[in-house]
Amino acid sequence: MQDGGLLDIIQFCDLNKTINLGRALEFTIFDHELADIRRKLDLNIQKQLRELERQWSGFEEERLQMISEQSERFKEKTKLELAIRDLKEEVEGERSNRRKAENELDRLKAEITEKQASLDQVQPRFNELIKQEQQVNTELAIAEQRQRELYSKQGWTEQFRSAEERDQWIKRNLAKITRQISDKRDQESTQELEQQRESIERNKRHQNELKHNRDALQNERQELWRTESGLSQSLQACKEEINHMDMILRSIVPKAIIHGMDSVKKVIESLRSRHAHSNLVDGYYGMLIENFQTDKRFYTAVEMTAGNKLFYHIVENDRIGTKILEEINRQRLPGEVNFFPLNRIQYRPHEYPQNQYVLPMINQLQFEERFLPVMQHCFGKTLICRNMDVATQMARSERMDCITLEGDRVSSRGALTGGFCDVRRSRLQLQSQRWNLKQQAEELETQLHSQREQLTVIEGKINGVSSEMQKLETKTGKMIDVYEKLQQDGRLLREERQMLQQSKHPKERQLSSLESTLQQLEAQKESLNRDLGSEMLSQLTVDEQSSLEELNRRILKLKESAKVLFNERSELETEKNRLENQLQKNLLRKKEELQLRLQEISMADRTQSLDSHQSELLIVTQRITEISRRMGELEHQLEEYYIGKKKLNQQLEMCQNQERDVQAKITEDAKEMEKMANKQSMLLRKVRFICCLLC
Known about the structure:
80% of the residues lie in helices and 4% in strands. By secondary structure, the protein is mainly alpha-helical. The chain has a domain at 233-451: Alpha-Beta Plaits (2-Layer Sandwich), CATH 3.30.70. A hairpin with a 4-residue loop joins strand 8 (401-404) and strand 9 (409-410). Helix 3 runs antiparallel to helix 10 (427-531) and helix 4 packs across helix 7. Mean pLDDT is 75; it is low at 153-163 and 179-189.
């Protein structure tokens, strides 16, 4: 009975020991689960939250920019609408004024045509009467002169010495008047004024086109700015992720190696910045881990094979490695540094077994051909096997190191190495992610560089258009000054021509008087020539007496004709002067003023400016529509951000609840284990006590 009871006690103790061991294993499993949950919280959710925060920052910044631009565009739109309203009123007023001016001008032209027609009817008769009156007066003067000669053959006078002298004097006066009138007419520049006005309007149209081009370029520049901002934010996020990966990598790599990596990087950057030892800089290829890629299935096997050799530095030759070490020592930089000089590494090709359960590790790597010696040195003698049985068999038969996908190794010398490998802290996984992020960052930098080049081109175009607009404004201002000067000169020339026209009639009358006087002098000369050498008689001859009587009768008749012609000519002259005054001082002057007003209306035409403002308003309205659409998209994206953030917070809360549950379970199990340990201790004491009694 005693032996049976002792056996039961021993079996009970073994059972408790087994239970305790199971609970210890369960405790360990729960502890690992808790660690896994914490890592998930630290890595996955925090990464997603960082990404969401980055997106939110970009969206919020763009939204604020859009709000600011929208406000400016609304102000610009309001300003343009007010300007368009004023311009429409001005255009309508100008159209009304132009119609009135054109109607008034048409009326004036009709009245001028009517008055000119009346003047044209009066002028020929007036000129004819002038000639008749001149002829009668000339004949009367000659007759009276002959009468005086006959009454007294004395008091002879001459105004001209010869007919040639008379003609020359007359011709000089006529030529002078004709030349002055012709010169003043030639100086009129109506056509030049019209050409100048068209050039000004052409320049203004070109200015409006340039302004539209500039506005379009500025909108394109704003789009490029927004794209550049988005690329900069994405690039910054990539760099932050790279830094985050570097921090994780640093946490799982020995400190000495990390310091060595930093020291080599500092030396290379120093040499590159000084542009010194370019062959040394070009001969440094980075670390082993940076110079090959493989499928993620082989990460564990490759890491376990290479170990810390992953962080050895590859150089072209041993001289470069020595120089880098000398520079590190000279600068007293910390860390452990190892090199793979390509010129010193020797290898020979291996023959690998043809087995479906075996893969040569080096064949699973992607690298440049020049790094083959290093890769053969590190991975050439290793086979990847399906399981430990295959690995053991291959290591024994092929005399090569073998490793499974889980990282269990069988050395060619027979040693076994293995254990738990945390794939979540894989250095190759981190390096792969880092490499992908670096590639993404390089692509973003390329896009950013391209965007900045486009911005530079757009800025150049905007500056060119602005410069051309400024030149056109200056040129247009000068042309307007020339146009106004031509207008003023035209007015002065027309006034001078009018004065010359007015002085023409007195000179024509003077010419008629001179011609009459000349005829009198010719008659007097002829009489004197007849009397020259004739006998001096006290009485007139019979012929002379008869001629005197005839002259007396003719003089009376000529005086009556002269009186009639004078009266008719005076009436026509009064009518002619009235018509000329109406034309020159009233109608033609009003016509000129109206033409100037119409030209000014054409110069200050608001239609072109109205079209320009309406085009600008259309562009601004389209931009406001684009901004509203983009703001709607941003609002939707921000809403998605808040939803995503809420989901992540819920996941975080769920993970925290799981953590609390696991922690509570661990606490409960710990208490149970403590109770079991106490019971076990008590039972062991009883067993020892019973054993003592039995002994």
